[in-house]
Amino acid sequence: MEKVANRSHRRQLVLWVMMMIELSLFLCVFCAEIPPREVVMDNDSNNHVRLEMNDGLVLIDNGLVEVTIENPSGFLMGIKYKEMPNVLENRNDNDNKGYWDIVWDEDAYDKLETEHVEVITQTDDLVELSFTKNWNSTNYGKTVPLNIQKRFIVRRGVPGLYMYGIFERKEDFPDANMYQIRIAFKLKEDKFRFMVVSDTIQRIMPRREDRNEHRSQILDFKEAVLLTNPSDPSLKGEVDDKYQYSTENKDNKLHGWISDDDAVGFWIITPSDEFRTGGPHKQDLTSHVGPTALSMFVSTHYTGTEISTFYKQGEAWKKVFGPVLIYLNSASPNNDHRKILWNDAKRQLSEEMESWPYNFTGSEDFPHSEQRGHVNGQLLVRDRYMVKELMQAKSAFVGLAAPGDAGSWQTEGKGYQFWTQTDNIGHFSIKNVRPGEYNLYAWVHGFIGNYKLGLNITIQPGNKIELGTLIYDPPRNGPTLWEIGVPDRTAAEFFIPEPHPQFMNSVTNDDTDKFRQYGLWERYSDIYREGDLVYTVGTSNYSRDWFFAHVPREIENNTNQPTTWQIKYNLQDVNENGTYTLRLALAAASYAEVQVEFNNPNARRPFFTTQRIGYDNAVARHGIHGLYRLYSIDVPGYRFRKGDNTVYLTQTRSLNSFVAVMYDYIRLEGPNSLVN
Question: What is the rounded average pLDDT of the residues 413-434?
Answer without folding.
Answer: 98
